Amino acid sequence: MNKAIPAICLSFFLCACASQNKTASMHGLTPTQAQDMSSQNAKITEAKAPDVTANTRFAAGQLAESQGNLDAAMHQYNVALEKDPKHLPSLFRIGVIFAELKQYNKSFEIWARYAVASNYAPEYYGNLGYCYELAGQPTKAEATYLKGIEKYSNNASCRTNYGLMLARKHRIQEAIRMWTPVLTDAEIHYNLGSIYDMDGRKEEAKVEYQKALDSDPDMIDARARLSETSN
Asked: pTM for the whole thing?
């Protein structure tokens, strides 16, 4: 997750599985030999077939989610949790999906499970706080961010999301102070540009995007947003 982009999934947990299919053919076997071999192969395959793990189910959920099939994704994540009730990647994605669907109470329940399973990991506070924001509960959001920062002083997800919240409330200097320990100068200017952009303050947004590029000429997002804002 790009720290300079306001999104609930600011953290980790992307995995992929890849497999290569190999084909083989048999030649010159009598029907009896072929039947015997088929039977033996079936037994060997059955004996060696690996269990479908939580990670496998999670990978299937990721594929379904990338295709926009949230129902199938949720099914796979839930099956993963049946196999491993503390499977953090699946808990994380379910929490995000419920938030995206605006089913905030269900999302809160999942983040509570995530907190226990992860022993209150840093990203828990940042994502729960953002979920409170989406649910229209800014007071709880702010309290959650501050609690996360108190526990983990350089909690990137809390500082990034809380800074964005402050900036949206036009508390710019507080936002910058919140970001400085965890973001680069380019990311800070990009975030400010994004906030000004959303407020319709195009000229100020362009200035910030340009400052982001001056600090990091390879920042593709800033270049794209500057071009969009200038047109």
From this structure: 0.74
